[in-house]
Amino acid sequence: MNIVMNTQRYAQMIDGKATAQKVLEEIKIEVVGLKAAGIEPCLAVVLVGDDPASHVYVRNKVEKALFVGIRSLEYRMSAETAQEVLLQKIDELNADAAVHGILVQLPLPDHIDETAVLQRINPMKDVDGFHSENVGGLSQGRDVLTPCTPTGCIRLLKDTLGNDLSGLHAVVVGRSNIVGKPMAALLLKESCTVTIVHSRTQNIQEICKTADILVAAVGKPKMIDASYLKPDAVVIDVGINRIQENGKNRLVGDVDYEDALTVALAITPVPGGVGPMTIAYLMKNTLEAARMQAKQI
Ligand code: GUN
Fold it and tell me: pLDDT at residue 296 above 90?
């Protein structure tokens, strides 16, 4: 009798949806404790304009806040809102002791200076971790509020590889302020050896092939395939790209998932990987912000 061995091996799927649910359950318990101490964590979300994707994200954030018991306030402003009016709203939320977290959904309309807006948020309430005080603090390795998506990615990596990531070579593809740069800073804080590659990097493929951890955050559908991966690499796909495939609208990552599965040790799917973790860590940051502010009083 001939036995045909199937030597094809497949990576483990890193289930971000399940992990995010676990994180939310943990937060829910902590919120109960905080409320018992007389603190009701509260997140204010500000949305300017009518970008349909932003509306979906904000709805999701409000829904998850409700789930964990965090109070949420939603401020919708028209696309024509003057920058000064938005800054006034931020001042008002900064001054309100009952508000612990402030999130201004990006992107903002073109006539508004994004930096001016993000810098106006009190760093203690900056649950996005985008204020220069928090960016600098992270770079110095201080305990500050850190951006939600990369912080969620670290949790997925630790759940997969264990808490000690030290000495691993992490390659981050992309250098955005929202993901690439803070991701690199967080990996460095975990004592990884960190390389950032970007659109001007030569030999991206060869560099990626040396990665124990590969984080893709470039916004290029399926750019990373098996030929970019070292066997048993752990792959975190932050990309969310809407593409047309066989006449259908599809959501795909920056990694060719099916192809990468044959080489990687573990990989996040899109959707259901990093996405749900971002919102879970926004809730976590709101909780931390409430704790920090309670200590200050
Ligand atoms: N738009 C896309 N991602 C983000 C994010 O992480 N925070 C905010 N505020 N807006 C976004």
Answer: no
Q: Is 11 in contact with 264 (CB distance < 8 Å)?
A: yes
Pairing verdict, β 248-252 and 241-245: antiparallel
Average pLDDT score over the chain: 96
Residue with tokens 């502010």: 293
User: What residue segments make up the domains of the chain, in order of their start?
Assistant: 39-122, 147-275
CB of residue 135 inside a 6 A radius of ligand 1: no
Q: How far is the CA of 213 from the centre of ligand 1 (A)?
A: 24
pLDDT tens-digit map of 155-204: 999 999 999 999 999 999 999 999 999 999 999 999 999 999 999 999 99
Fold: same for 39-122 and 147-275: yes
CATH topology of domain 39-122: Rossmann fold (3.40.50)
Question: Does position 154 have pLDDT exceeding 80, yes or no?
Answer: yes
178 ligand 1 Cβ < 6 A: yes
Strand-pairing partners, residue 104, are 46
Q: What one-letter code names the amino acid at 278?
A: T
Measured distance CA(122)–CA(101) in Å, rounded: 9
Please tell me the predicted confidence (pLDDT) of residue 1: 55
Q: What is the pLDDT of residues 250-277, one digit of tens each?
A: 999 999 999 999 999 999 999 999 999 9
Determine whether the shortest distance from the Cβ of 134 to ligand 1 is under 6 A.
no
Report how far ligand 1's centroid is from the alpha carbon of 168 (Å). 28
User: How many Å apart are CA 36 and CA 57, to the nearest integer?
Assistant: 30
106 lines ligand 1 (CB under 6 A): yes
- Global pTM reads 0.95
Q: What is the CATH number of domain 147-275?
A: 3.40.50.720
Residue 282 Cα: closest atom of ligand 1: 6
CB 167 within 8 A of CB 141: no
Half-sphere exposure of 36 (CA within 13 A, CB side): 6
